Amino acid sequence: MEHRVYKNKILEELISQDEFADAAKHLFELQCNDWKLCRDNYEQLKNVKVKKFQFEGYFIKAQFNPGRIISTSAKVDPKSIQERKCFLCEQNLPAEQKGILYNDAYIILVNPYPIFPIHFTLTHTIHQPQRISDTFPDLLDFSKDLSKHFTVIYNGPRCGASAPDHLHFQAGNKYFMPIDDEADLIANEYGSTVVDNENLLIQTVDDGLRKFILFESSERILLIDSFTKFYNVYSELMNEKDEPLMNIISIYDDEFGWRVIVFLRTKHRSHHFFEEGDNKLLVSPAAIDLGGVCIFPREEDFNRIDKELIKEVFTEVFIDSEKLYELKYNLSKLF
Asked: How far is 122 from 214, CA to CA, in rounded Å?
């Protein structure tokens, strides 16, 4: 990956001071300056259409974003993955794409097909499967080191990752997703407490649209241990030998520490995705959609979308209330 590292004095100075968030912003400016595709796609993003829907205590936005058509419609079955080149591997990246090396294990790259106004892919330098069980500490580190400007997300290999064969996270502007602002209010209204002490808060949440578990702590080791307990309980509950379906949003605050939202999934795409003709709705919910920015690459779908359709899609892809209660019950016995 060495020749993919952007050589720039300002970048090197910021990185030497561990100012990764500012370094990433500067990388974005450099890439937009010297990479036409990247520059054009971010310019187009400024003109995307957006609709906003008010639910009980929170918002969901719909974004018409034709640049995301490849990702939304990506074939992620094992056969299709095996037959295509991995677009996150060094040798297959666009010639103009360069980034910042992070902890000698990841490279921070500007995503040329953005949803966020500034959007990064945080790609492992080694081709290995997407998984969170042993990389959750990396997610926490990324969200802390980029916290000045960005939120970090993870999409599971079977529910949103368009490269399930190559380990990666994503990062984008803090507070772009409504849930960055709304999570605590939603949890206060719809949450059920698993653990609440001075070092750790864990709540299960059913806001009528989404089912998720919320972790809050300023202690990294405690969070890692808590997530591991959850992961094992959730895997058993869902009868999964592979990684159970989940999407994660991690945001860090200097005063309060980490807030980690884990969305609890039962399937990748709702039946709407597989319909024919006018009934088809090309939507493939992943972390950003669940965070409150639903992406529609086709204008006809964006024009059609309303509160009822959003509720149909979300209800179908999340676990049910009974499973959420069972998760809380089984997890509470471990604390």
From this structure: 23
